[in-house]
Amino acid sequence: MTLPLNASSPAATHANSTEDFARNLASIKTRIDVAARKAGRDPASIRLLPVSKTVPEDRLRLAIAAGMDFLGENKVQEVARKAELLADIPGLKFSVIGSLQTNKAKYVAKFADEFQALENVRQAAALQNRLEIEDRQLDVFVQVNTSDEDSKSGLAPADVQAFVEELPQFDRLHVKGLMTLALFSDDKDAVRACFVRLRELRDMLRDSAPAGMHIEELSMGMSGDFELAIEEGSTVVRVGQGIFGARELPIINN
After folding, report:
1. Bridge pairing between strands 138-143 and 70-73
2. Which has the closest alpha carbon to 233: 245, 249, 221?
3. pLDDT tens per residue, range 98-149
4. What whole-number distance in Å separates Cα of residue 231 and Cα of residue 227?
5. Which whole-number Å values give the CA distances from 171 to 136, 137, 140, 237, in the listed order?
């Protein structure tokens, strides 16, 4: 059976020691370096965001000891729980990369350093309100549905500029760039098209964004397709199973 291009690599060791994590991390960084140089880019211009969803505290401590200090999480309450459990580790940061219900904005405002799934004004207003209470600032990415799939979150590309023009009123939010999830497919050209679409949208917004807003970053590419994303200009790649290994599934008692 042919796996989608962006299916997570089955080759990553299920990391259970600092040495395992260091080995997997080095492997991903080498792939980033090779892809960047192939594209004529500086590898230092690409940030690796390890995605640690479902990974328990004990394994996270091993991963952090291997050099990870900025972790991506899908669920906001999981961020809150892990931030509290790992509060003794100085400098540890969390990025929320999953969808957000406005009633959970308090968790992002209190515990996250970055939010990569901003897609409507209700979210922006809820985050602004909670950030004012916490007296914090938050880096954000606008999520774009570049594959036009009903199952995916994010703004339609045609709606992004109008949305961005509403964001200066939320002064606690610092818009850094755009984020997308590519089509889950083994068609390389179809996956690439998602990344090209986001890059072209970013390039347009560089000239048309409100004064003082600098939209430069592109968060695109995951374990199975980040090299292709790097070819098309990604500045943040989100890698989970390529670093942590296959996710542990919950045990269901019948």
Report:
1. unpaired
2. 221
3. 999 999 999 999 999 999 999 999 999 999 999 999 999 999 999 999 999 8
4. 6
5. 11, 8, 12, 27
